[in-house]
Amino acid sequence: MKSKIVMIFTGGTIAMKVDPELDAAVPGVGSNELMEMVKEVDKIADFETIDFANIPSPHMTPDLMLELSKVVKENIARDDVTGIVITHGTDTLEETAYFLELVTNSEKPIVLVGSMRNNSDLGYDGAANIAAAIYTACSPEAKSKGVLVVMNDQIYSAVDVTKTNKVAVDTFKSPELGPIGIISNKEVVFYRNIKERQLLDTEKIEKKVGLVKLAAGMEADILEFFIESGYKGIVIEALGCGNVPPAMAGGIRRAVEKDIPVVLVSRCIKGRVEPVYGYEGGGSQLKDMGVIFGGNLSGQKARIKLILALGISDDIDIIRKFF
Ligand code: ASP
Fold first, then answer.
1. pLDDT mean for each 10 residues of the chain (323 residues)
2. Would residue 90 show up in a list of annotated catalytic residues for this protein?
3. Ligand 1 centroid distance, CA of 315 (Å)
4. Residue 161, SS3?
5. Atom in ligand 1 nearest the alpha carbon of residue 56
């Protein structure tokens, strides 16, 4: 029996071409045109298309992610649906993928896909990537692997994938763990399974979550801004294994004392944050203050998690457990 795939289009370079007047890429390729490019997959699946949006992914927001998650949940629950493919701009694709990973609880494949070259570029990678995403969504092996990202014939888990290159077609990587599978000559091959999934399912989100990346000598003024502007959560992309410049430490203490959850991650792309150092601003001191350690998450993914966690509860101990 043929698979049934729901295609949800949200925009991105995959749906862009160059406007000759602007001499720059803008949205301009519709879902019908994109589906025409991948006619060969008609042999393995029937399709339904949903035009959710046609936006560049820097225009994506947590509200839109929540709305998208409702469309995904509604469709993935249908008995006749095998899987879902979502086209998305690559800039924030990993954030939407992680959001969906945390709020959806289906064993059926949910696959995000984009392209690095627009439809006017030589070597446009959109059609091949969509076909690879569809092969993946139709694969029985893709079941129970959580939300997946397919680009450049590689399959990644939404949990650890990140955009690593500003322009190259092999931009998506999991720097620590690598791809979980590949698409090879139309065959979907998985190398490994994923750990138990975490669910933070909520219909409510808290968008006022700030993210600040730290560098040598930074001071706490940005944290004072967050506190005074009513931010409900703060993610700190700290140094090394989770340390901050001494002039930051006081600001973090003030935020924690005001019951604002502060989540600590690192600007290093591999490894986990750990409370190793006891000096002023060291991780051990931050831990004693009540800062929440965010494991191996990137800043942008920790922010998505905190947005969802705060939608579920404002109790710091419950939020701490989520991390
Ligand atoms: N700036 C584009 C976007 O994220 C990049 C892309 O889609 O690859 O929408």
1. 96 97 96 96 97 98 98 98 98 98 97 98 98 98 97 98 98 97 97 92 96 98 97 98 97 97 98 97 98 98 98 96 96
2. no
3. 36
4. coil
5. 9
